[in-house]
Amino acid sequence: MNTVGEGKFRVWLQCEGVGNDLVYILGGGQRSHIGSVVMKIPQKEVIIMKLEGHYDHEVLIPIAEAAAQKYHKKVVALGGIHIDNASKEEIEQLVSNCKELIKCI
Predict the structure, then answer these.
(1) Other C-beta atoms within 10 Å of 25: how many?
(2) How far is the C-alpha of 97 from the C-alpha of 78, rounded, in Å?
(3) What confidence tier does 72 reach under pLDDT thresholds 50, 70, 90?
(4) Which of 1, 46, 81, 92 would disulfide-bridge 14, Cβ 3.0–4.6 Å?
(5) DSSP 3-state helix, strand, coil percentages of the chain (rounded to 5)?
(6) 2-102 to CATH, choices 2.40.50.140, 3.10.150.10, 3.30.2380.10, 3.30.230.100
(7) pLDDT above 70 covers what percent of the chain?
């Protein structure tokens, strides 16, 4: 498991192999949850499932795309990050930390 940030800005990314495919689980903030699921198959469009009011797909898409491109495998990225009453600046910090996690793929 890879982590970036501290306190309520800490995010983590875990990878599991499922046969020849990969599953990435993203969590962090004050409460991890499943807000979105993203699937990326090499040379195909991204498939997105998201719960109403959740925008976790915005940080999961780059994770799935990076892993599919690097490993040439089907990838599912799922999870979510939550901070109560998050300000725009707090959301930007979480997004930035998630982008840092992509370097660990």
Answers:
(1) 18
(2) 16
(3) very high
(4) 1
(5) 30, 35, 35
(6) 3.30.230.100
(7) 100
